[in-house]
Amino acid sequence: MYTPAKERYETMEYNRCGESGLMLPKVSLGLWHNFGDTSDYENMKQLCFTAFDNGITQFDLANNYGPAYGSAERNFGKILKEELMPYRDELIITTKAGYDMWEGPYGNWGSRKYLLASLDQSLKRMGLEYVDIFYHHRMDPETPLEETMGALATAVQQGKALYVGLSNYDGKTLSQAAAILKDLKCPFVINQNRYSIFDRTVEENGLKRTTGILKKGLITFSPLAQGQLTDRYLNGIPEDSRIRKDGRFLKESALTPERLDQIRRLNDLAVQRGEKLADMALGWLLNHEEVTGVLIGASKPQQILDNVKAIHCAPFTEEELRLIDEISK
Ligand SMILES: NC(=O)c1ccc[n+]([C@@H]2O[C@H](COP(=O)([O-])OP(=O)(O)OC[C@H]3O[C@@H](n4cnc5c(N)ncnc54)[C@H](OP(=O)(O)O)[C@@H]3O)[C@@H](O)[C@H]2O)c1
Q1: Which of 231, 264, 296, 303 is deepest in the core (most CB within 10 A)?
Q2: Predicted confidence band of residue 329 (pLDDT cuts 50, 70, 90)
């Protein structure tokens, strides 16, 4: 059985998640890719071990991560059972429901029926009694917010989630949801949104500002724009890259000549700073006071080792921040 590194808490840094009691690592690992049934189980284990050995305590899942849907939770559950369960109290395990999961009218969006059934299924697949954070995965324009938030509160009351979170919400809906959750005395602590040098939506839709005002946590997903903000695509498209291996969410068409020029210019800036582009991109996010942590993906353990260096990224000068904005817009 796996024995974690003794020095696992020596280099990672932890931020308080909003005003809550929960401390989260500055870098967390997401299992959206590379944990489905089409991926190599031994590599999944090594990704988890490398993360935990380096102080990454948070592992982020969702009901439909795979492929096939549910398989990332099942594979992670196997790793937990075989290797990591003795460390359960050192782990933050999160899951979500909100996107299509099963057929029919009860396997998608934000109804109470869907959320609570989905959480039960997630717990079963992972072999857990509770998750640390249960998220509503996306806003549902049709279901009353009171119903969705009520379902999150019930998950906590049932002891199946310790905290709840919202993902892909905008500032206005976050404010409304937070007020309902406060009335329900539900421990809502975190937002999970896409945010990177290349994707500034949260700066434009009020999410980042509202998160700060409400003093909630913000964990940023796809902080490397799925690999674009790394040296992955500087010299063509490698055969083992996400674009070639999967191609559903990051397509070759994203790498326009303009985008490749942006990547090269950002890479030049990172080199001038004595860093890798990935570390500069993660460091740029961690430099925002609203950001609790970055949620990375990785296909190889070495990427995790490279990315945790971001927590020691050099401070940014005003001129560097201006240049990053100029290049990326
Ligand atoms: N809430 C939501 O709606 C939502 C949506 C999306 C994601 N998420 C969460 O966020 C997590 C991270 O998302 P993401 O995987 O898109 O994040 P990301 O960190 O932007 O991209 C990860 C990918 O970038 C490449 N990479 C990472 N580090 C690298 C390095 N140092 N050098 C070169 N390439 C590197 C790898 O791709 P290669 O395969 O090319 O090596 C890796 O799989 C997900 O696992 C999930 O937990 C949540």
Answers
A1: 296
A2: confident
